[in-house]
Every structure is written in structure tokens, then in C-alpha cells.
Amino acid sequence: MHPQELMTSETYLGLAPQNKPELQKVMEKRKRDQVIKQKEEEAQKKKSDLEIELLKRQQKLEQLELEKQKLQEEQENAPEFVKVKGNLRRTGQEVAQAQES
Question: How far apart are CA 25 and CA 30, in angstroms?
């Protein structure tokens, strides 16, 4: 191979040394990084219908869990006679169901 052919083939393979100034290299790299970051952000912003529906369901389940927890705390903080009354009522319903069976 002639030296000129070698240089040409190296250029096509991307093996030739780049003669760009350091500042230009840095700016090109920064621009590439910025474009990649922008595409990633756009991909995160675009949510499919399924993702939106799943988020809605998750929020609804969290809200129901909070309500359940609040109700449980209220029952724990209730006076003793209210707890006993609730237990008696439940026991009475269980006995009535057992007699029907």
C-alpha cells in the first residue's frame, strides 16, 4: 500500500488523528451530552396511558390505605366501652349466623 492509500483507509476507519482544537472537541462533547440528556428527559415526560392509569391506581390505593390506618387509629384511641360494645355486636352477629346455618 502506498502511504496515501494508507492515510485514506485510516480516515475511513476513523483511525486518523483528529486535527480539531481542544475547545471544539469539548464543545462538541458537551452538545452531544446535552442532546442525550434532553432525549432522556423527553422520554421520561412522555408516559403511556398504561403508566398514567397505574399511577392513578397507586394513588387511590395509597389513599385507601391512609384512610384505613386513620380508622384503625381512631378505634385504638376509642374509650374501652366503645370497644366492648363493638365486640359484643360482632359476637352477636356471629351467633346469629351460626344459628341460621
Answer: 9
CB 93 within 8 Å of CB 100: no
The pair phi, psi for residue 92, each rounded to 5°, is -65, -40
Cα 101 to Cα 90: distance, rounded to the nearest angstrom: 17
The per-residue pLDDT for range 25-75, each reduced to its tens digit, is: 999 999 999 999 999 888 777 778 888 899 999 999 999 999 999 988 887
> What is d(CA 16, CA 1) in angstroms, rounded to the nearest whole number?
16
HEC sequence for 44-64? HHCCCHHHHHHHHHHHHHHHH
Dihedral, CA of residue 41, residue 44, residue 47 and residue 52, to nearest 10: -130
Model's pTM, two decimal places? 0.36
Question: 91: which 3 cell numbers?
Answer: 359476637
